[in-house]
Design a protein that fits this description.
Elements lengths: L4 E5 L6 H11 L6 E6 L4 H12 L2 E8 L2 E7 L2
Parallel strand pairs: 1-2
Antiparallel strand pairs: 2-4, 3-4
Length: 75
């Protein structure tokens, strides 16, 4: 999936991945996509809740070898 900005929050636990994602989304334009790479298993529920609460779209997510990748489109 294509993205405009990438955020690496590996090794960070809740709430840091969400806080950093919020900041990174503020730095891109509406319609652009932020790729987030995390290692916190709690980020699975957190990212979905974050997207629902902020109105940003969670375009996709996946897990590979303990790394979680999310694609958020700014509303």
């Amino acid at each position: 999936m294509q993205f405009n900005k990438e955020l690496d929050v590996r090794g960070m636990n809740c709430p840091i991945p969400i806080l950093r994602s919020k900041k990174a989304l503020a730095e891109i334009s509406s319609g652009q996509v932020l790729k987030v790479v995390a290692t916190d298993p709690g980020s699975v529920k957190d990212m979905q809740a974050f997207a629902n609460q902020t109105g940003n779209a969670l375009l996709g997510s996946g897990e590979d070898s303990g790394e979680y990748t999310y694609y958020l489109q700014k509303a």
